[in-house]
Amino acid sequence: MAGLQVPNSASGQGPGGRRRSWAELLAGRLKRQKYNPERAQKLKDSAVRLLRSHQDLTALLLEVEGPPCKKLSLSKLIDCDSSETYANHSSSFIGSALQDQASRLGVPVGVLSAGMVASSVEQVCTAAAETSHPVLLTVEQRKKLSSLLEFAQYLLAHSMFSRLSFCQELWKIQNSLLFEVVWHLHVQGIVSLEELLESHPDMHAVGAWLFRNLCSLCEQIEASCQHADVARTMLSDFVQMFVLRGFQKNSDLRRTVEPEKMPQVAVDVLQRMLIFALDALAAGVQEESSTHKTVRCWFGVFSGHMLGSVISTDSPKRFFSHTLTQILTHSPLLKGGPRAEAAQLLPSLGIVVALLPWGGRDAAVRGGRDAAVRGGRDAAVRGGRDAAVRGGRDAALFVMLSPEELVGHLQEVLETQEVHWQRVLSFVSALVVCFPEAQQLLGDWVARLMAQAFESCQLDSMVTAFLVVRQAALEGPSAFQSYADWFKASFGSTRGYHGCSKKALVFLFTFLSDLVPFESPRYLQVHILHPPLVPSKYRSLLTDYISLAKTRLADLKVSIESMGLYEDLSSAGDITEPHSQALQDVEKAIMVFEHTGKIPVTVMEASIFRRPYYVSHFLPALLTPRVLPKVPDSRVAFIESLKRADKIPPSLYSTYCQACSAAEEKPGDAALGVRAEPSSAEEPLEQLTAALGELRSSMTDPSQSDVISAQVAVISERLRAALGHNEDDSSAEISKIQLSINAPRLEPREYTAVDLLLTSFCQNLMAASSVAPPERQGPWATLFMRTMCGCVLPAVLTRLCQLLHHQGPSLSAPHVLGLAALAVHLGESRSALPEVDVGPSAPDAGLPVPALFDSLLTCRTRDSLLFCLKFCTAAISYSLCKFSSQSRDILHSCLSPGLIKKFQFLVFRLFSEARQPLSQEDAASLSWRPLYLPSADWQRAALSLWTHRTFRELLKEEDVHLTYQDWLHLELEIQPEADALSDTERQDFHQWAIYEHFLPKSSASGGCDGDLEAACTVLVNALMDFHHSSRSYDHSENSNLVFGGRTGNEDIISRLQEMVADLELQQDSSVPLGHTPSQGHFLFGIFCRRLQALTSGWNVTARLQRQRELLMYKRILLRLPSSVLCGSSFQAEQPITARCEQFFHLVSSEMRNFCSHGGALTQDITAHFFRGLLNACLRSRDPSLMVDFILAKCQTKCPLILTSALLWWPSLEPVLLCQWRRHCQSPLPRELQKLQEGRQFASDFLSPDAASPAPNPAWLSAAALHFAIQQVREENIRKQLTKLDCEREELLVFLFFFSLMGLLSSHLTSNSATDPSKALDVCAAVLECLEKRKISWLALFQLTESDRLGRLLLRVAPDQHTRLLPFTFYSLLSCFHDDAAIREEAFLHVAVDMYLRLVQLFVAGDTSTVSPPAGRSLELQGQGNPVELITKARLFLLQLIPRCPKKSFSHIAELLADRGDCDPEVSTALRSRQQAAPDADLYQEPHLF
Fold it and tell me: CA-to-CA distance for 1381 and 1444, rounded, in angstroms?
């Protein structure tokens, strides 16, 4: 271009032969002529026309610039291999030169640059004319074009480029313009395809040019060239543009402006491509020809990735509707009204399958192919269709045509246009196979067609209805009802379409008669065997037709008498030989007999109405001689039933028996080659293995589907033989199955046999799934499952327990799928299966089988979580696929709600993307296929199931909601050290589950209605329930040392702490200043309700349950803020908060009995209360006054708290003192000082120095002294207790009571710090001091709530201690003084009461708790022996009774009224002494001296 010479005529010659430049020529003209605007405009137009002619613009630029600018060459700019770099010729430099030249020429710079770039494009396209790619660039061309496009973008950015002029220049070079260049110009925004097309005046020519290029592009893609990726992207972009612009919705139909060209061109191009593909398929293209490659690639247009970016619009929907119309109507066949049989109208095009959803398209291909095989169809057509389908396999992923829309569209096309019936019927086949709903939709449409046909004798409607029904029936009963059933339902009753008038009858039989010459024998047989019901006066119409049909059958050499009993009359295949059909009839009849136990109705009817076939074919096939089994099988039972019903001629039966006997004598000749039963020499397990192998080989062979039932029967028989069961064992009903989940055991024979069964089931499922989806696999799985019921069911469930509960994570994918499917089928028969008793560890004693699988699947570790996810995914997916067309009740029976809840829990827990709310567009299709492939992607399968529409609808059922409580129970099982989530991920999951999911959710859906207190309530109950359940692992003897016996609860407890803290803040903000909340804490309400639900009593079980419950309460309270116990503040108007009242009640009524030792609570709960007390009081106006008031109330309401503070005061005092002094400079409150003084008194008392007097109150000082005494060594105790003689009487009485409690604690607590002998010495010393000072102490053994002493001490001592006071009374028997026993009037009453209560305790077994352990020293043996103690007490009473004065017997009768029979001898002695007492006193000699 740079070296191109301009002709002399154009440039001119100057003087001397010097050539003048173009600029000089133009300059000379400007000088000689005056300026004229009109002439200037004409000059510009002429210059533009000149530039648009085929001139070398580069040479022109060189000529204008002169020799110094010779390097300004655009060809070198776009030449990437040139040694002159782009840096030397920048775009800005060239742009500047273009502007200068345009200004000199008076031409718009955009027009000048557009012509220059177009010329360069032509140079790029023609640079390698020898290339073999007519639509694609080479690598070198692509690099040059890239440089050119960068320059063009620069020009565009600086408004130096005219798109319109460029488009016009491109059309001038369209013959050399490569399609890829157009794509690059469109993609990089130089000029869009729409602009380019709009600039061409001839739309037809544009369409033809695009069509040629698209065909070449498709051919290049299928040729697998090195630029195939670029070609596919080009095709995708162009198709998306054509679909979007060609099928966009017209926004203003009333506009009068000229319509745009782009939508017309887009529709025209798509139409050309579709017609080309249809014509090519109709003509029968050769494999791997260029046309074949083009058609195959174009069918890929219907795939999802081709239309990915426009799928959110309505354009694809309109495009598919238009395409479907074109497919059905292009080159219509049978225009004059089709009168041919449906079997001859071959489905020929697979693109209709691409219009259907992905989940059913493969099924449509298989169904159509199977129908073609059955009908003997042309293999080439079938291959062409399959190839087309393979090319568009992914199309339907994005298609949005519903079944209703497809059927309605088909109906509209048939009513308004002429159609290609081969494609119509192909579409019908694909429709019924892919959509379960299509059966009902087509049935309704056919019913309307039939009604219209008989209403006005419309032949076209009649023909359409028959064609649609026959074609749909070819796909089998799972897709559409058989033709025979439809014909019987339509014409076999008085409600038929033909029953309205004689005109309708004539119309029907005329139509059927016209079809006879063209009918297949199958349809003629249907019409003869199931004739229309006609009134008797019109019987001649029917007989004429039947005669005509039989004549036609005779011409075809088909006998109506040779038809089988169960022959498929809907298929259009060849007629089966009578012998082969008879064998199939026998197998099916035996199968029906196995299920019903009765002779099939079809056989009974054939024995009467079709006797020639029954006698000549059916009975000989049934009575084939063989070696009869030792245990009669189904065939033998069926034959015997027919014989009893007189349906077998005696002579034929006798011949059969003789032949069977001969076969037993000569097994080699038995049954004329029919295989004999396995010999008895074979091992039973080997026979079972062989039978299972035969069944497995039948799974992948569709022709063997009829014999599966018989094979399963053989397996059942051989299973019984392998396990040694007889027929009676199989029929025995099992009421309940006992199963040990923790230690399941099986006998070796059972183990082997059950493993064979389970392995076979898994293998059969994989084999069957490779051929058909679950919903089309037939009843084999249900039949196989029934062999596992009965007496072998316990062994099967035991083995499943071993596999799922103990070995689950080690199972392979086929095992997981097979066992999950088996669980579904076991659930299907749940009503016929017994319940399973899994022992006391299970929450329920008897479980249905589906719930058993829920119990076997644990969610504790990473491995068990993943296994449970796999099993749940497989089970739910299988059930949804298997029973997709059945009612929701089937799903509920097959799957337990617990299994579905576990799946929800696992998906939420393991997949964060599942925690986002689903939109309508997220609904995914469900496919069983990816699960059984070797590389099963469980995560993808689980998420696909999660978004599946049917599963989402299932989750709307109330009983399968994953409630907040369900989530907590499952989450508590997780072992954090082996969790699939990290600590941070687990915390994030808990936060989301509680605060974002369950808290705002409604209670009807399992949430908390936004109530944080309700969420805390459920969490606390779940914590305690889990701790008490067997699911809480790591239970041990010291499990109370760890929360819940495990560390996994720590995260949940942390969530509880956060929630309670939030509630505390909410409550504090809602209470006005200066007031305290009147409502107690919700936790105490929970505790109260749970305690009321527990069994009360003194038996060991009830006590242990209550103690465990209270220990859990204490641990929960210790983890929560101390304000839970006392409240956040105290005020003078309401000094004691409701929380304080609740805590005092809990301590006095419950914790006193189960959480205290020796008259004190544990240190942790004591310190927790006092910290909370000071925190609340320090917020009041007078903290010291509030503390004194609360602790003063404690003396009457809950004195146990004060005694506990005394026990733990050495460690409690520094904490309280520091807390008090941090806020107040004053001394401790007076009530706290009393505790200090009490501890100081006890310390001083036990020191060698003189002791200070005991402070008030006396019972507090006595308690402090008691705790101090317990810490003194035994050898010093006697010496220290001598100081008691100087103490107050009241102090001694209280100290004696605390000492008695200490004595009981030393016996009751195995790890007590006080030895029983020391405790007894302390009691004896205190008692001795009391006796010495003649202080009455008997009231301590008669405490009641009515007296002041009882109200105080009974709220300190546990109830068990007060019940065991008779034991302490007689343990001190040796310390009693004789004169005191006689002197005290009440002594005898107390002694008798204690004795009778001691006997009652012994009878009730309660004294065993105070028996000394075997490891105690010998001198203690007998001291705490209840029998010996009772003996000594009895002897003591018998000696005491005669010596007591008369006044001692005043209330004895009351004691003996209801307990006199405890010891008859003591009762008799008391009554005798009571009656003789007056006389004895009367005649007793006085002591005068």
Answer: 8
Q: Which residue matches tokens 């798509």?
A: 270
Higher pLDDT, 1071 or 159: 159
Q: What is the DSSP letter of 1356?
A: T
Give me 356's structure tokens.
């259907």
- The radius of gyration of the chain from alpha carbons, rounded to an integer in Å, stands at 51
Amino acid of residue 163: R
pLDDT digit string, tens, across residues 652-705: 888 888 888 887 765 444 333 333 344 443 478 888 888 888 888 877 766 666
For residue 1183, the surrounding DSSP H or E stretch is helix 1183-1197
Please compute the mean of the pLDDT values over residues 1008-1031 and round it to a whole number: 86
d(CA 1163, CA 1152): 14
Query: Contact, 1408 vs 1426, CB < 8 A?
Result: yes
- Cα–Cα distance measured from residue 113 to residue 101, given in angstroms and rounded to the nearest whole number: 10
- Residues with Cβ within 8 Å of 1074's Cβ and at least 6 positions away in sequence, in order, are 1131, 1133
User: What percent of the chain is predicted at pLDDT more than 90?
Assistant: 11
| DSSP conformation class of 936 | -
Q: For residue 916, give every residue at least 6 positions away whose Cβ sits within 8 Å of its Cβ, in sequence order, or none.
A: none
Distance separating alpha carbons of residues 1065 and 1012, to the nearest angstrom = 12
Residue 996, classified by CB atoms within 10 Å of its CB into exposed (0-12), middle (13-18) or buried (19+), is exposed
Q: What is the mean pLDDT of residues 876-891?
A: 79
Pairing of strands 835-837, 736-738: parallel
What is the distance of C-alpha 161 from the center of its chain?
A: 60
Most confident region among 495-504, 1354-1363, 1463-1472 by mean pLDDT: 1354-1363
> What's the rounded Cα separation, in Å, for the pair 999 and 265?
57
Nearest residue to 1402 via CA among 1383, 1380, 1374, 1424: 1424
The amino acid that residue 1013 corresponds to is E
As a three-state string, the secondary structure of 1146-1170 is: HHHHHHHHHCECCCCECHHHHHHHH
CA 937 to chain centre: 15
Using CA atoms, how far apart are residues 995 and 993, in angstroms rounded to an integer? 6
pLDDT in tens, 450-470: 988 888 888 888 999 999 999
CA distance 762 to 61: 81
Residue among 1258, 1310, 1260, 1313 at smallest CA distance from 1289: 1258
d(CA 1009, CA 793): 45
The residue ranking higher by pLDDT, 1219 or 1044, is: 1219
1301, 1270, 1309, 1266: which is closest to 1284 by C-alpha?
1266
DSSP state of 542: H
Q: What angle do CA 990, 993, 994 make, to 5 degrees?
A: 85
Contacts of 193 (CB under 8 A, 6+ apart): 182, 183, 186, 238, 241
Nearest alpha carbon to residue 125 among 138, 111, 112: 138
CA dist., res. 415 & res. 1158, Å (int)? 97
The answer to which of 451-460, 643-652, 1100-1109, 1336-1345 has the lowest mean pLDDT is 1100-1109
Nearest to 1378 by CA among 1370, 1369, 1365, 1387: 1387
**pLDDT of 133:** 56
- Show the DSSP H helices in 199-289 as ranges: 203-222, 228-246, 261-283
The percent of residues above 70 in pLDDT, for the chain, comes to: 75
Cis, bond preceding 1464 (omega within 30 deg of 0) = no
In this structure, what are the phi and psi dihedrals at residue 924, rounded to the nearest 5 degrees?
-105, 160
In the predicted structure, residue 370 carries a pLDDT above the cut 50: no
What crossing angle do the helices spanning 1230-1245 and 1199-1207 adopt, rounded to 10°? 50
Q: How far apart are CA 322 and CA 835, in angstroms?
A: 58
Number of H helices, E strands in the chain: 73, 3
Helix or strand run (H / E) with residue 909: helix 897-910
Token representation of residue 1355: 């709220």
